[in-house]
Design goal:
The protein has 292 residues and is mostly beta strands. It has one domain: Neuraminidase. Helices cover 3% and strands 50% of the residues. The chain has two helices and 24 strands. β6 and β7 form a beta hairpin. The two termini are 22 Å apart. The mean pLDDT is 97. InterPro entries: 6-blade_b-propeller_TolB-like, SGL, SMP-30/CGR1_Lactonase. Belongs to the SMP-30/CGR1 family. This is SMP-30/gluconolactonase/LRE family protein.
């Protein structure tokens, strides 16, 4: 396990793009990029309302989920930020992770409730944003939709408090059908108390990678100090343990040969513990099966 970046607040949304690793740093409100060894660190965007998930449009422009104002931003070639879609009338709670598919459609999750404020857990929605910025809710009753991947035909979403990865078939018009459990780690929650639910979750699936060459997905297990490689059906085929005291909140496969697993790591996810500290890091380790 190597440290790529250190002394950051809380990292999310890692993406491998054109020889660089991109990542959002919540509480410094920056989207950063660096070479895979951490050198040539750049600030790619400053997002006052806090950046989270990112994704790449087919033409190379980057989309960024701006959490607190519920807006998806688009980074233009000159580095400027414009509003791609305003989701304030659709999202429930702050925006979360997201993915962009080969057709340029953006799939965005949200919290569903005030996690940091200690509110009771409520189901959330998944939102599709079309290339022209039009948006609609495409799935409901999701338990904290988080890491997302979509190849244009199949959409997989991590439900962090649902003990599962959920899949959908994607129609030509962007409609979703055939909702199913892609991987089930345990029973869904019966309590609305996050403090009671967390200890009972076998896996807390947070950020997830794009599928590797065998179709497996790396999953950041946010409460157990590890990332796991999961096959469709739920088999855990591999595991990477983080250094003592750290948890993994998002992962991405990349590197020049597609065999580097990048991990967003921090001691916890709670805002009051991370906002004014700088002990989050971007880690990396080699894996056997490369990115597809």
């Amino acid at each position: 396990m190597e440290t790529v970046l250190r002394d950051l607040s809380f990292l999310e949304g890692p993406r491998w793009r054109a020889g660089r690793i991109w990542v959002s740093d919540f509480y410094t409100r920056r989207v950063l990029s660096a070479l895979p060894d951490g050198s040539d660190l750049r600030v790619e965007a400053t997002v006052p309302a806090q950046p989270s998930g990112t994704g790449l449009l087919p033409d190379g422009r980057v989309l960024i989920a701006s959490m607190r104002d519920q807006v998806v931003l688009r980074r233009e070639p000159d580095g400027s930020l414009v509003t791609h879609a305003d989701l304030a009338g659709l999202a429930r709670g702050v925006l979360n992770d997201m993915a962009v598919d080969p057709q340029g459609r953006c799939w965005v999750g949200c919290f569903g409730f005030d996690l940091m404020g200690g509110a009771a857990m409520e189901p959330a929605v998944l939102i599709r944003v079309d290339p022209d910025g039009r948006a609609e809710i495409v799935a409901e009753d999701m338990w904290f939709p988080n890491g997302t991947v979509c190849d244009g035909r199949t959409l997989v979403v991590a439900e962090s408090f649902g003990n599962r990865l959920t899949a959908f078939d994607v129609g030509p018009d962007g409609g979703l059908a055939n909702r199913r459990e892609w991987a089930r780690f345990g029973e869904p929650p019966t309590s609305r108390d996050v403090g009671a639910v967390l200890p009972g979750l076998a896996v807390v699936p947070d950020g997830i990678s794009e599928p590797d060459a065998e179709g497996a997905i790396w999953v950041a297990d946010a409460d157990h100090g590890r990332a796991i490689r999961v096959r469709e059906g739920g088999e855990i085929a591999d595991e990477v343990r983080l250094p003592e005291g750290l948890h993994s909140y998002a992962v991405a496969l990349g590197g020049d040969d597609g065999r580097t697993l990048f991990l967003c790591a921090a001691p916890s996810f709670l805002e009051h513990e991370r906002r004014d500290t700088r002990d989050a890091a971007l880690l990396a380790t080699g894996v056997e099966v490369p990115l597809a």
